[in-house]
Amino acid sequence: MSDKRLKKSGYDKKICGVCGGIAEYLEVDSTIIRLLWVLFTIMGGAGILAYIIAAIVMPDGENY
């Protein structure tokens, strides 16, 4: 059983590490997650609020 947990990235971060952490969890490139997040923000406007909530709720990852 793998110990795969959603957490903020400790090394792949631009602001808080939320997109980097999601990318690590889904095993995809973090640039794709960041682009999707920007599109989500432009289309619905809730992306900024969702990012703030995720930055507060997600635990910190390890620094490499």
Topology:
Layout: H1 18-26, H2 30-44, H3 47-57
Helix pairs in contact: 1-2
Write structural notes for this entry:
With 64 residues, this protein is mainly α. It is built from 3 helices and no strands. Helix 1 crosses helix 2 (30-44).
Q: In brief, what are we looking at here?
A:
The chain has 64 residues and is mainly α.
Give short descriptive properties of this protein.
3 helices; mainly alpha; globular
Overall form: globular
Our estimate of the beta-strand percent is under 5%
Instruction: Name the helix and strand elements from N-terminus to C-terminus, one letter apiece.
Output: HHH
Task: Report on the biggest sheet.
Answer: none
Helix content estimate? 40-55%
Using only C-alpha atoms, the radius of gyration works out to 12 Å
The low-confidence parts are none
Distance between the termini: 23 Å
Q: What is the helix tally? A: 3
